[in-house]
UniProtKB/TrEMBL annotation:
Gene Ontology MF terms in the entry: serine-type endopeptidase inhibitor activity
Species of the source: Molossus molossus (Pallas' mastiff bat)
Protein name: Serpin family A member 9
A single Gene Ontology CC term: extracellular space
Cross-referenced Pfam families: Serpin (PF00079)
Keywords: Glycoprotein, Signal
InterPro entries the record matches: Serpin_dom, Serpin_fam, Serpin_sf, Serpin_sf_1, Serpin_sf_2
Length: 380
């Protein structure tokens, strides 16, 4: 695949990520948000393989693809490359991402579609008996639980007996910081501003060299902390009362601007320790982004089955993340560094003690694995 096309895919994926984020924010403006744009994009691209006519066009155009610039085979090739590179096992990083389709068992599926889904997306398609909704739900949930080593449970809460197709995508991520925090410096009850009040959170603390940037235009600070295994977290702290302005300006261009202006410097960092697990019923959100036909009577999935009418009745997404000190083996070395540095010369401090954005990026593919907003770390 040409370099230019790969760049185009990354930009489309990033812009789709931010548009989906803005939709989720408008639904619940003052709540935590956390999802995996790459997992959602990959499952939609996979679904588009079996879509035809307007159903296909709506899916790919809503994802930000322009057919004159990027023909469909190049889009699919881009996702194949992405899914494959993200699922390569690594000793430093536990990342599991997958999409899977559960389709009503009476349907005659097209072998061409089944082959493509396996070849391009390393995905499974299961024929499922939806007439018994509780055993169908149990089957879907236990499949996802097994694939994510028990991290993602109860993905599907309810199913209709007339369900024809369920699209599931899941992602699980666990990595160690390249520069871990020492748990001894985590203050148990640190005030974190939520609206007009404060909640108490465990706040991690270290002095270290990190890549950092200030964006005067958007009035925010950007801190990059690397994980081992070619992955980095970006924490973006807007000035007081500037979150809305920041959210509206999110785009692949903004992200590029930040990554170009990051510079290594000594910093004193305060970061909340928290875990999150969020689920979204995307069948209520994607139609508002232009993917309408796939979810209603106009759906054309004749690439999946020729004989019957098929529409997506559910698109479930669940993402899990854990932000902690991780890497206690380096604790002793970290301890001396913190005390010496503090006496030495005061480093500027950045304290994530009010709402901030969080992006986790795979550096090799420049892909946003996760995107979220922490409004209240005690509420995940």
């Amino acid at each position: 695949m040409r370099m230019g096309q790969e760049k185009g895919n990354q930009q489309s994926n990033a812009n789709f990520a931010f548009r989906l984020y803005q939709r989720l924010v408008s639904k619940t403006p003052s709540q935590n948000i956390f999802f995996s744009p790459v997992s959602v994009s990959a499952s939609l691209a996979m679904l588009s393989l079996g879509a035809r006519s307007a159903t296909k066009t709506q899916i790919l155009q809503s994802m930000g693809f322009n057919f004159t610039h990027t023909p469909e085979p190049a889009i699919q090739q881009g996702f194949q490359h992405l899914v494959h590179s993200l699922n390569v096992p690594s000793k430093d990083l536990d990342l599991r991402m997958g999409s899977v389709l559960f389709i009503k068992k009476e349907l005659q599926l097209q072998t061409h579609f089944l082959d493509n889904v396996k070849r391009l997306y390393e995905s499974e398609v299961f024929s499922t008996d939806f007439s018994n909704t509780s055993s169908a739900r149990e089957r879907i949930n236990s499949y996802v639980e097994k694939e994510t080593k028990g991290k993602i449970v109860d993905l599907i809460q309810d199913l209709e007996p007339q369900t024809a197709m369920v699209l599931v995508n899941y992602i699980f991520f666990k990595a160690k910081w390249e520069k871990p925090f020492n748990p001894r410096y985590t203050s148990k009850r640190y005030p974190f501003l939520v609206g007009k009040t404060t909640v108490k959170v465990p706040m991690m603390h270290q002095v270290e060299q990190f890549a950092f940037a200030v964006d005067p235009e958007l009035n925010c600070s950007v801190l990059q902390m690397d994980y081992s295994g070619d992955t980095a977290a970006l924490f973006v702290l807007p000035g007081q009362g500037k979150m809305r302005q920041l959210e509206q300006a999110l785009s692949s261009r903004t992200l590029r601007k930040w990554s170009h202006s990051l510079q290594k410097r000594w910093l004193e960092v305060f970061l909340p320790k928290f875990s999150t697990s969020t689920s979204y019923a995307l069948e209520t959100i994607l139609p508002k982004m232009g993917i309408r036909d796939a979810f209603d009577r106009k759906a054309d999935f004749s690439g999946i089955t020729k004989t019957d009418f098929l529409q997506v009745s559910k698109a479930a997404h669940k993402a899990v993340l854990d932000i902690s000190e991780d890497g206690t083996t380096a604790a002793a070395a970290t301890a001396t560094k913190l005390t010496i540095r503090s006496k030495d010369s005061p480093s500027p401090a950045i304290c994530f003690n009010r709402s901030f954005l969080l992006l986790i990026i795979n550096k090799a593919t420049e892909t946003i694995l996760f995107l979220g907003k922490v409004e209240d770390p005690t509420k995940f």
